[in-house]
Fold DUF58 domain-containing protein.
Amino acid sequence: MKKILRKYYTDLFLTNRLFIALGVCVCLFVFSFFISFLGDLPYFLFGALMVLIILDFILLYRKNKTVFLRRDTPDRLSNGDDNELKIYLENFYPFQIKVGIIDEIPFQFQKRDLWFSTSLSSREQKTITYLLRPTKRGEYDFGQTRLYVQSPLGLLSRRFNIGTNKTVPVYPSFLKLRQYELMAISNRLTDIGIKKMRRIGHSMEFDQVKNYVAGDDYRTVNWKATARKGELMVNSYTDEKAQHIYCVIDKSRAMKMPFDGLSLLDYAINASLILSSVALVKEDKAGLITIAEKTGSVVPADRKPTQLNKIMEVLYKEKTRYLETDMEALYISVRATLKQRSLVIFFTNFESMSSLERQMPHLKRIARFHLLLVVFFENTSLKSLSEEPAKDVEGIYIKTVAEKFAYEKKLMVKELAKHGILGLLTSPQNLTVNVVNQYLALKAQQRI
């Protein structure tokens, strides 16, 4: 008996409408002491309210099959992207109901006011869609979904605790993979609003002889095929294939800096995953090396169908370290792993010229054997400070210092170029687009 009663009172809640009605009854009882003509009206209204409460209770509890709710959660979430989740509802009550939903999302989102309210007619179905944007990789624990149902009387609310705890892993950004793969096929990223980088030259890897169409380069006309066929034919060329593309990710404390909820390491990981995907679409071989105070994970370059999943699984587990990068260990890993000339894209960060100079000897040694592209980040906070007008003497001082640091970042690119090393200075939000563009440009220029 105790268990049955507990089943009811633990999931039964009083609504604001009931408290208002009780307040009205209390006021009438108080006024009846001073206003005689109220008579038995307060007793009548209070009795009617008790009857309605009992009726509301019966409406909510008399059926076994009441409402159906299901939360559709992806098997994995994409880090830094808006992930879509759905809550499916169906009403089996013979009357219209009002529902409120609390979804227990993982604590990492620090969101305690995720409340949805709607109404459903009898046998009506609804789907509620909402977005979650995780900013850290790892495991996220979803709790139960709390459903609060009210009948048309609206005096009581019945709670349903639906579902069980579910753990969902958050992987590096994979939702944008398909988008960038399509861009890579056409060698352009203009469709997403990014200015296309000028690419000089084209590959001389022969593909096929085809009919001339307007816009083809007249220098590629195949005169022998034209004479045989009796119509204008041209040679078609394609990018060279099976080139080795390695993403080298610095996991040291320099990559711990946050930007828009994500660390620089997470931006580098997301960009590396997308670049690897684009490289595989271009039929190149993608590989990965992570480095901090010692060599981390090493994935040799390959273009098997399982290569992208292998890289994703490795990147999922990577975390920021708190020591300086051992560039000697990186050089040894590169020499041991890379057996032919490759494009090495090194994701790191420099905050001063002196930090670059400390690593320059090792970068030069790597650049002797491979095409090295060093990718580092703009300090967007300093950049915004340098662009704001100064209002007082202190503002002038801050603006001058910010401009000095911003200019020093640009000098680092020139310093790298002096030693035959490519440099790419980019803001975190534009990292992926700029890196993919740079890769496509280098392929078009046949520099790999």
